[in-house]
Amino acid sequence: DIRKGINWKWLNSLIRAQRFGRLLSMRLVAGHRDGLTPARYILEDSIHLQVHGRRRILLISPEYSFKGMYPYPVAHPYDGYSMVDLDDVNYGQTPAFAAVRGQSFILEPGDLLYIPRGWWRHEQGLSKEHISLDLRFSPGKRARDRHVAVLPVSRDIEERLART
């Protein structure tokens, strides 16, 4: 039972202490060994709780959004994802990716990872099966990374141009 495996009282105190906004969604994520979620960004703060199995998450700062991550355009079906295949990078097509740096985390049951809004995440299952919860929050009163503003502004410009 997932509910019993999470210290909800502690989690709620963390959310309040860190000044997150209101909870927007809570998603149950399940997968298998080598299951991959390609690099993408999400414009909400999130907390990733590993419940069962192991999962690797690579985080990349939004400062690389337009300096190597090559995001798909807003109107594209892969909006929010990177054009770069991080498992088989074609540097001829995406040369700026060579400068991109990130931090890799291996999550085990009971681990929690805060993922700031706008940060790129590339996820891979390491266990035969894995389960996690992904909680997403409104902005709240947390300090913002100055590089995050570029993504929403770029998205807004693209959306406005598409309407003209």
Automatic annotation (TrEMBL):
Protein name: JmjC domain-containing protein
Matching PROSITE patterns: JMJC
UniProt domain JmjC: residue ranges: 1-154
PANTHER family per the UniProt record, alphabetical: HYPOXIA-INDUCIBLE FACTOR 1 ALPHA INHIBITOR-RELATED (PTHR12461), HYPOXIA-INDUCIBLE FACTOR 1-ALPHA INHIBITOR (PTHR12461:SF105)
Similarity field: Belongs to the JARID1 histone demethylase family.
